[in-house]
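To whoever is on call:

I kicked off a structure prediction for a single chain this morning and the downstream step that reads the tokens threw a length-mismatch warning. I double-checked the sequence; it's 393 residues and nothing unusual in it as far as I can see. Pasting both halves so you can look.
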Amino acid sequence: MMTDFTPWLSSTLSDYLRDLESLVNTDCGTHNKAGVDAVARIVRERLIAFGAEVVDFPQEEYGDMLYARWRGRGTARIVMIGHLDTVYSDGTAAQLPFHKLGARIKGPGSNDMKSGVLSGVYAARAIVQSGFDQFAEIGLFCNSEEEIGSPVSRELYPDFVRGADAALVLEAARENGAIVSARKGVGHYTITVRGKAAHAGVEPEKGANANLALAHHLIAFQALNGFRPGLTVNVGVVRGGTKSNVVADTATADVDVRIVRAADAAPLEQAMRDILARAIVPGTTAELSGYVANPPMEKTAATTRLVELAQRAARELGFEIEDVATGGASDGNYTASLGVPTLDGLGPVGGRGHNAVEEFVDANSIVPRTALLAKLIVAIAEEKIRTKMKDEG
């Protein structure tokens, strides 16, 4: 289907921008439930106006979540993923409200990811209003706590995403326009070392310095960088001891690890435990706690096919796109771990997320990137039709 969604999206751009202004000017940090709920209501109203069925998921601690769907007459099921929360504290929207600076739209959450959510809403409507209905379902799941790792919504993804033909994550495209085909998995670990306290001046020999033991362990942990291709280990926070004249009896360190492949998690964890089993400082013991919280979003053959479909759609729209891998995680890590082909970075082009002063979305990218998203959804649906016809033939 060579439908050009650009004219309709161009004609509704003023509505999109008004919606975006309303969203950006609403404080919605993850722990501001009232603010995230307000954003959800704005999105919900637009979804209903665009003919979607909306299922609400009320939450007690975090903002309410929602799942929208448009039903068709085909067989493909494509689910878009977005989030309604930001990293910003209350008052940021009033201090740095929605505004344009040249071609850039600025304001908290403009890039991460209020424009992306809106592009999902408008892309789905563009498809439906065009008359294309050869899909079983186009879905949009909006969670409310992505910025803290999706502790609740990650448990909901199997219900909405498992078995889908594709999961399309609406995080912003990179500043150079690239989409994201792979993300590293993220692990959070804590090293705890226990020693024995003693007076540092009177009888230090009776102590066992946990700080010293931890220092040796951290040097060994640093050497694990590159243990597997692309694997990184970073010791971010270190704590130890009580007073300078006391031999430290406890010390801890918080460690961030990033892995490219799920298969790398177990050998890395074993390597860390092996390091801690070596008591370099007599009288000390060490233990490791933690886990890989975000499984990696690995680039598979199915992901590569999604990239090819996206690149073809971009060429039909008159531009080229590349795909990249990144070390940061998103909800795409969870959808990919369910075996669903996942592509990310499908929102408008933007950058400087998590920096309230510098965050922006490129206004000139909104229509073409939303058209790209719509064309990609159609391409996925059409490819499933062709595959079914080939299998039946």
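Update from on-call: the warning came from a stale cache, not from the record. Cleared it. Sanity check on the structure: The two ends are 21 Å apart (CA to CA).
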